Amino acid sequence: MGRNRLEPIFKTAAGSGFDGPGPRPLPWHPLLATPPSVWALSLGFSLPTGSTQVCKHDRQRPGRRQAAPAASTATMRPILMKGHERPLTFLKYNREGDLLFSCAKDNTPTVWFADNGERLGTYKGHNGAVWCCDVSRDSTLLITGCADQTAKLWDVQTGAQLYTFNFDSPVRAVDFSVGDKLAVITTDPFMEHSSSIQVKRIARDISDQMPESVLTIRGPQGRINRAVWGPLNRTIISGGEDAVIRIWDSETGKLLKESDKESGHAKTITSLSKSADGSHFISGSLDKTAKLWDIRTLTLLKTYVTERPVNACAISPLLDHVVLGGGQEATHVTMTSHRAGKFEAKFFHKILQEEIGGVKGHFGPINALAFNPDGRSFSSGGEDGYVRLHHFDPDYFNIKM
């Protein structure tokens, strides 16, 4: 069972001192603004041509030369979190916003303090790329979906592996229902098995947990990259390789609505993210757009156009902003425009559909994005294996369009 325990990043003096990838921690020094397990670097928030400066400050860490001010660049300081050996795939905050969970193509989901980026521990037990995770409303239960053809339930606090759902193909997406009594899980097409959406009942007492699915939906062609619950758990919204968003009845599995070619995406849907009030959601696609939809009627509300494929998107719970991330693979950059290889998170006004600015920093495509539930910070995960935690400066909240 020790293998499945939540392993702290810092051990006692008798221990090794560090557990996991990355450099060994330096001794604590009072001049350091953050624990030695994280690094704070300057971050440029670049603005579109003709826009006003958004956020600036003159804070300076001791021992670091302050960069010369730029006319069109404001400065925030991200926290770089190195806890994965391979590219990031998914990020998820808990309801209170004090914990951040990360998944990557390594086999070790990780939990961090969302305030300072200190790693709390890892969840060991998977044997493949972990594609997705979700955490229960009370932050006691974590579910993960993995390419090893399993979805696992974990004790958030101890890291203990509580239960394993076994499938015939890789698991791509997982999502708890409101109330945490159900979980929707999608599986990839593999060999003779087609893709599927399955609903599992989550027992209050783990000893009563059953492996059977209470609902199985088949039909969509190709991978189903995301599936989330609709209002009151009455529907399930899915999107994937066939570029179609579908709304299903969560009790009968009947297809209720689907996006059409005129309003829908033209290429693979990579991401689905709901608003804080659950009234609408955003979808990201390799067609270089993100779209805002009414969650009940599947009416297209807004479209955000970017210069690169969108791998991740999220809706601010505080302001009328959305953030998009993605980027061309390095092998394709030379065949596209000169800006396609810039890996930055782009902010758009949710209503006006206008670009507000961009946050650079990742050395590869951005694969995961998430806003803190309080709306005052966000995190990004990239192909470079880093999680970047960004706390907004006060001036960010005074952006005028």
TrEMBL record:
The UniProt entry, under Pfam families, shows:
EIF3I
Repeat region (WD), residues: 81-122, 123-164, 217-258, 262-303, 359-389
Q: GO MF terms on file?
A: RNA binding; translation initiation factor activity
CDD domains given in the database record: WD40
Query: Single GO cellular component annotation?
Result: eukaryotic 43S preinitiation complex
The protein's location, in the record's own words, is: Cytoplasm
Q: What is its main location?
A: cytoplasm
Q: Which HAMAP family match?
A: eIF3i
The role this protein plays is: Component of the eukaryotic translation initiation factor 3 (eIF-3) complex, which is involved in protein synthesis of a specialized repertoire of mRNAs and, together with other initiation factors, stimulates binding of mRNA and methionyl-tRNAi to the 40S ribosome. The eIF-3 complex specifically targets and initiates translation of a subset of mRNAs involved in cell proliferation.
**Recorded family membership:** Belongs to the WD repeat STRAP family. Belongs to the eIF-3 subunit I family.
What this protein is called in its record is Eukaryotic translation initiation factor 3 subunit I
State the species of origin.
Colocasia esculenta (Wild taro)
Taxonomic lineage: Eukaryota, Viridiplantae, Streptophyta, Embryophyta, Tracheophyta
